[in-house]
Amino acid sequence: MELHQQTIHELQEKIKEGKTSASQIAQSVFQRIDVVEERVHSYIRLMKEEALAAAQKADIEIKKGNIKSLMGIPIALKDIVCTKGITTTCGSHILYNFVPPYNATVVEKLRDAGAVFVGKANMDEFAMGSSTETSYFGPTRNPWDLERIPGGSSGGSAAAVAADECIASIGSDTGGSIRQPAALCGIVGLKPTYGRVSRFGLIAFASSLDQIGPFTKDVEDCAIMMNVLAGYDPRESTSVRAETPDYRQYVGQEIKGWKVGIPKEYFVKGIDPEVNSAIQKAITVLEKSGAKIVEISLPHTQYCLAVYYIIAPAEASSNLARYDGVKYGFRSPDSGDLLDMYKKTRMQGFGAEVKRRIMIGTYALSAGYYDAYYKKASQVRSLIKRDFEEAAKNCDVILTPTTPTPAFKIGEKTDNPLQMYLSDIFTISSNLAGIPGISVPCGFTSGGLPIGVQFLAGHFEEGKLIQIASAYEKNAKIEKRRPKL
Ligand code: GLN
Known about the structure:
The protein is of the alpha/beta class. The protein contains 15 helices and 11 strands. The protein has helices spanning 8-16, 22-40, 48-63, 105-112, 155-162, 179-185, 219-229, 273-288, 304-319, 338-349, 352-365, 371-392, 417-421, 428-433, 462-476, and strands at residues 43-46, 74-78, 116-121, 168-173, 188-191, 211-216, 259-263, 292-296, 397-401, 437-444, 450-456. An 11-stranded mixed β-sheet has the order 1-3-2-4-6-5-10-11-9-7-8, with helices on both faces. Helix 7 runs antiparallel to helix 15 and helix 9 (304-319) packs across helix 11 (352-365). The mean pLDDT is 97. Glutamine (GLN) binds at residues 127-130, 153, 173-177, 205, 312, 424.
């Protein structure tokens, strides 16, 4: 197997045994990028020079015996996390030339753990979308079928891992943007509990829902990444001061006697039959692993999408007010007075989906409508959260499909926003409730497209997710395939 095809833990072993070096790994990844990137388009910007220099530095440390947990591991960053001195566009024209003066906390943590940054990954503009088609820089393609979308909004980060253009990557998840593309690209993606990973330096979409998390090739790598990412950050006001366990201890543990809840509301009409049968098989694997399957109910599920599409646009309309041509990025070149400059900058700088969200959000927050929309949505959000608290009394973890369908064709849903929004029907509830969720590969369609199964647990129970995902991965023995590129 070539270096770029391996996992973090496999490469770590090789580095420790002196069988490879950080520079060799970085070279291998960039050679792979040379071959496939033109077709996949995972990246908005590559950082080859910086990466090779970082790899050389890592090799010096390795020689000294200083081998940190991500030493020499090539990692891609979604272009929504700020990188000091390196453009951070958020997939938008309005930030096409924005160079942050600081690093996001996760960037510093990864760097301090020895990671080598490969580049800034493509994404839907301001993380609004489920297909990476709203990027100002053009779409990313699914490595398993280049006619199809990789999912979104973190589609570049997911495709880069699936196509072996990096070893692991960072995404952000507001309504499913880590788990949905992980499922559609056949890799592992975890959205941590709200407050578990610092959002400092993450460009805000909907602040009460956004979380940063990892994309990896397997569950053990997910645990390794979480060990680096999780933890309190005094620079972030919603960051939680809670103990972070060693997530790696949960890898390879049994799940005998665990109760796995199957929410009946998630298995109704609209699920693709091949997705459904893969999920049923996953349930059987867990039963055989000693878990007990129990039916549960999350009665407010039917309101999740509606609540999300009030709360997320409302918060986005407020967060995106700062892009006015004065402080950041793009300014319309052909404007007159100040008001005209604001208007033209925003008109020319934002794409259609972002404008749609700003309009919905501004409307929902308008005087006279606030009580009817935002306040109502917040109240229903509390009920959704309570559903999960009630469910936790009857099970240890919840199992659902990650997505209702496998990857769809590029262009198939761009004219129908509601159809597009339905892609996140199974992932949005956990953002509203603030709980963690993981998507793990659970098979392929007859046409060779990956399918994902999602596990959800209570607040700060990422360890449980890693434990069940790892047990499932081990016992399901899903055939190891690579996309043919
Ligand atoms: N697809 C959802 C949206 O467009 C979720 C995006 C996300 O998680 N960033 O809002």
